[in-house]
Amino acid sequence: MSEIRIMKRGKVYQYRFEIASQGGVRRYINKSGFETRKEAQEAGAIAYNEYFRTGRKQKIKDMSYADYLDYWMTNYCYFNVKYATISSYLNIIKTHLKPELGMYKLSQIDAYTIQNYINKIYKEKHYSKHYLQGILKLIKGSLKYACYTVNFINDNPAERVHIPKYDIVAGDPAHIFTQEEFEIILERFKDVPYIYYSFLTAYYTGLRVSECYALTWDNIDFEKKTLTVNKNIIKKNQNKLPKKYIITKGHSVEEWYYGTCKNPQSNRTIAIGDTLVKALKEYKKEQEENRKFYGDTYLKHYQKEVINPFTERKEIKIVNAPAELELNLPESKLIFVKPNGQYRGTETPRHAFKVINYELRIPCRFHDFRDTHATRLIEQGADIKAVSKRLGHSSIMTTYNIYVRVTDKMETDTVDKFEEYTNTLDIPPVQEIEYQD
């Protein structure tokens, strides 16, 4: 391709340079109307550089890190990251990164700047190791995209940054329920069916919270005694409403969507035992009676196809309406709803956890049901591969490293097995030695 040519056309000047040909035909970019040769040369240089990326590089060089984070979220995260993670990223960007690093140009961000920032919040904010790792992970991910995908920068400086050492190792937040503790929890909520049966289901299956509250009755096969996980539930922020409208006549104010499972292995069908099968049959019968009792006011739920404004792809939103209104949409028979049909998704057990933690004095998160399920299975000698598949993990190591804890029983069984092995050894008795004064 040729360099820029400056030509005089009558009383004005014109620049011209060759660009990529099409169909064997040579093509050019040109513009005239400049009063002097210098003006034409300057304008031509800008146009030439923009076409061959140099000008684009200059614009990127002047881009702030704050603006780049917006670009990264819009062009990468909204297409490739789960909604819950996007919400977390947006919070970190707004609260931490833009106020502290946003004023720097993208080209100015270096390892020294990032490391100083991480050290600063380590000293001043006293965040947990996990949270600080999350902030640094976001910085690394954003700059990795800038470096290796869109080539805005030549190097990812965050790769050389580390979080400071934490002398005090944070305790394991998981609580493995004893049988007695779980029975106490069930007894406390025996009169609140949608809580009682969701906890029972989580305890007997090890489902994630978003998987549990996404269950619909067609996911349960009572004949084959199986439960199928094929979706999860996602809460998306609705426009803020005045406080007095937070709960109105039993209607939910959250917006709930069906989402894909965490990973391909999370799409699974698992066996369930007679205890859970019998319990869910009883609950289904009770729910059907509630539908009759509330009649036209019972809230039914439907699947509405909408377009995601960021990805412009279709997704399923859950909408509700009183039974007297028949919507021309597929009905979604959600399992864990209030007696009148109201659905609160993963918000359902929020108050229950306060009761368990402060009234019953039992440490409890929803994930503890999953932790307990996995740990008890391993404790009873279940095959680790089968447990991993049941939990929907992408790797067996996840099952080992995160969800399976060493319990007192495991410790005792380990010692007993070694004792059983060593009993075969012929160990001579200890000889008593008499000492003389």
Explain the overall architecture.
The structure is a single chain. The termini are far apart. The chain has 437 residues and is of the alpha+beta class. 45% of the residues lie in helices and 15% in strands. Among the domains are: 48 residues, no CATH class; 96 residues, Tyrosine recombinase, N-terminal domain (DNA polymerase, domain 1, Orthogonal Bundle); 138 residues, no CATH class. The chain has a 4-stranded antiparallel beta sheet with strand order 6-7-10-9. The chain has a 3-stranded antiparallel beta sheet with strand order 1-2-3, with helices on one face.
Question: What is the tally of helical segments?
Answer: 15
Beta-strand portion reads 5-15%
Number of strands: 10
Indicate the radius of gyration in whole angstroms.
31 Å
Identify the quaternary structure here.
single chain
Broad shape: extended
Main sheet makeup = 4 strands, antiparallel
Helix content: 40-55%
Task: Please outline what is shown here.
45% of the residues lie in helices and 15% in strands. It is α+β, with helices and mostly antiparallel strands. Among the domains are: 5-52, no CATH class; 65-160, Tyrosine recombinase, N-terminal domain (DNA polymerase, domain 1), CATH 1.10.150.130; 208-345, no CATH class.
